[in-house]
Amino acid sequence: MICISGIPWKFPRAHCGSGLSVGEPKQVGSCGGSWNGKWNGGFLSKSARQIYRVRAVRTAEGVGEGTSEFSLDWRHLVGEREEAKAVVSQFLRSRGFSASVATRTLKNATLFTAHLLGILHSQHRARYLAGEELGTEEIQGTLLPYLESLAAKYGRGTPEVIVSFPDVPAPWTGGDVLYSITTDSEGQEKVIEVNLAECPALLGHCIHGKLPAAVSYCLSIGMTSEQINDVIQRFPAFAHYSVDNKIMKVIDYVLGMGCCPTSIPKIIMKRPQLFGCSVEENLRPTARFLESNGVEPEKWAKIMVNFPQILTYSRKKLQLVIDFLLEIGIPPATVGRVLSRFPHLVGYSLEAKLRPMAMYFKLIGIPDFSLVVIRSPQTLGLSLEKNIKCTVEFFLGLGYSIEQVAVLVNRFPQILGLNVENNLLPKWKFFIKMRRKHSELIDFPQYFGYSLEKRIRPRNAILESRGVTWTLNRMLSTTDQGFQTHLDKCDGALAAADQIRHAAKVASEESVVL
């Protein structure tokens, strides 16, 4: 038996078996240990010392009787924790779970991570007694079989099992299928079948074989069981929201903002937390605050469908974002329009994302960052390293000056979000092939926003076949019908010119004869 002072490890029988037996008492000689210290919500308490004294009680199967002590550097424990988390993340991804699900799972899996460390220390006891670290392959080899056993038992419910540890949700034993009787818009009863095997997140929320009222309501408004399962997996509390006292009140308020009933499922899937907020204490005051800063009431329907999270942020957070927009030169009357067009920006960190971006534009000599934001607020959602810097450096590498790049960006801010390798470079190469002047891109940077294969190349081929050259703007900005109209006029002008030249030639020949 191993007792580690100050470290919250509890080794259940799951370390040796394939199931997940939680909270069972352990006996000396089994692969386990005991608590020796109190859990305070973190991996290591703040008062934990750098070196932990670990007392190992050698059993008859060990090297002999008696006790011995060895030192374990806490940094090694932190390293093992990160290794264990990496194994879990890779395992979930290999099982078809998205990166976001894996990240959310690990963020809320502190107890399970400690449980995995217990497995390592239990199965590699001799190594730790000798003061040796485990390598990555050894950690993977120890933990993967255990994770495989969990996945074999719980399937798509594995992330919930990890987050819920040690209170693993018990499977519903009454069958794999439950039924929900709902009423449609015409008052007709409708029976909806829910396969729990495909919706493992619902298992722990079914009471006496009945679906929660919130789940039944979601089914009645057209959400699929898979969509509801995803909502519950991301935000379990939603399953227990009162339909009458919470969900319906929020829905009535959202419909009053102009949203159509068919948009409600989308809003639930994007931000289920919204339906736990008080309309009078949270949502309505927040909406009024944003309206006082320029958000037009008629824009709420579109805002709520695109980014319902905006009403769940604190007044302080919203004010900080508004202050930032004013700082970079956005006129107060325009702040609301920027927020309406790109409400996602209220979710970004000022210090980690927004301010560094504004500072970068200032450093490279592009002073009109406010104009960029006004014309394309989505620019604030781009990655400074992966999008903006790469694009600026691309054009500087082509020989354009920073002043010319500033003009490009101001005239067509969306250019910053275009991929260099897959978009800008192929179009640049074709631009060179057309033998046009570099200055044409300064005049019409929107060139990069058109499809190379569907618009640029075909229209250029048509013009070349007629021996004419148009500006990029004229060639690309018109609709197909407009392009053909201009082309017909051009053909008519060319025909008239040919007739004039022919007549002049005939007249010249006749004068020679005379």
UniProtKB/TrEMBL annotation:
It comes from Marchantia polymorpha. The keyword Mitochondrion does not apply. GO terms for biological process: DNA-templated transcription termination. The keyword Glycoprotein does not apply. Belongs to the mTERF family. One of its GO terms (molecular function) is nucleic acid binding. InterPro entries: MTERF (IPR003690), MTERF_sf (IPR038538). This is Uncharacterized protein. Pfam families: mTERF. Keywords: Transcription, Transcription regulation, Transcription termination, Transit peptide.
